[in-house]
Amino acid sequence: MPLTRKTHLSGGSVVVTIPSQLVEAYDIIEGDEVEIIPLKYGELKIRKINVSRRDGGLK
């Protein structure tokens, strides 16, 4: 089942939040880097590309 979100403005950017179910399932935390890949009109792929330091480990 798709999860939906509304966009909102923050400064000069349009922001979309990641649903908490996905944050937990994919172990996403503040500081993680994601890549946004345009696929075709109206479709984007978002991919986590690295992990922030959690307990002094390497990125």
Q: Tags for this entry?
A:
59 residues, 1 helix, two-stranded antiparallel sheet, mainly beta, two-stranded antiparallel ribbon, globular, 10% helix, 4 strands
Description:
The protein has one helix at residues 20-25; strands at residues 8-10, 13-15, 33-40, 43-50. With 59 residues, the protein is mostly beta strands. It has a domain at 19-59. Strand 3 (33-40) and strand 4 form a beta hairpin. The protein is globular and about 25 Å long.
- Overall helicity: 10-25%
Distance between the termini: 32 Å
Low-confidence stretches: none
Secondary structure: number of strands: 4
**Mind telling me the C-alpha Rg?**
13 Å
Report the oligomer: single chain
Offer a quick outline of the entry.
With about 60 residues, this protein is mainly β. It has one helix and four strands.
Set down the secondary structure blueprint.
Elements: E1 8-10, E2 13-15, H1 20-25, E3 33-40, E4 43-50
Antiparallel strand pairs: 1-2, 3-4
